[in-house]
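User: Fold this one for me? It's Metallophosphoesterase.
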Amino acid sequence: MKKIVVVSDLQMPLENRRANKNLIRFIGEFQPDEVINIGDITDYTAPSRWSSGRRAEFGMTVKQEAAYTVRHHLEPVRAVYDGKYTLLGSNHGERPNKYLVERCPALFDYDEFQEPQLLCLDDLGIGFEPVKYDFAPGWTAIHGHARGISLSRTAGGTALNAAKKLQKNVVMGHTHRAGIVSESTGMGAHRTLTGVEVGHLMDVSRAGYLGPARLANWQSAFGLLYIAGGQVQANVVPVSRTGSFIVEGELYK
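Assistant: Here's what I get for Metallophosphoesterase.
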């Protein structure tokens, strides 16, 4: 039985710090066969289009945010877990590179501001998949920001739309919603596609772009996958505001 932990959007340094610490402890104790980070591991606030011309553009630099992510997530994970860890490309991960291309082309350096270089992934033995990651037969992981995927307000619905596009079962992040939706077709319902959205691990109180009321259809969670041959059982693990969660009867708080 293969076990995979799917880390949802952290957007560090805007993460729920207790949830991040609890998840790292869980990974160390659970020792999964693999960890997939669904992307948006770092927020990269300054180069965001929402920060343009505002105070946020002059906050933490891209390299400072990347160093924070390494120090508070990647290195602590590697201290307790030496197995396979794969990071997916994402819209936040693309922000530094896009900022240079669109606003500072004279300073553009293709390699230096790519996410694998910013996060020193090679040094940490962490893989990087820029578009998608096929982790089991008929299943793929994507971040979910690609054009052409119809958004749904129902948790899991966007992932199901992506599954229909790709004709594969999909595990994804990006929406910050947590849910699983399946659809069966054909005579005898012989064809089933499943979409899994793994939520987020942000501290919503620090997401200033949501406005003072912090109104958002978001759910805090991460993913846990069990794989036996061609059979995949997908689970979404809810995470409380205090960062605690339960897996297989064990409370992590």
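One thing worth pointing out: The chain has a mean pLDDT of 91.
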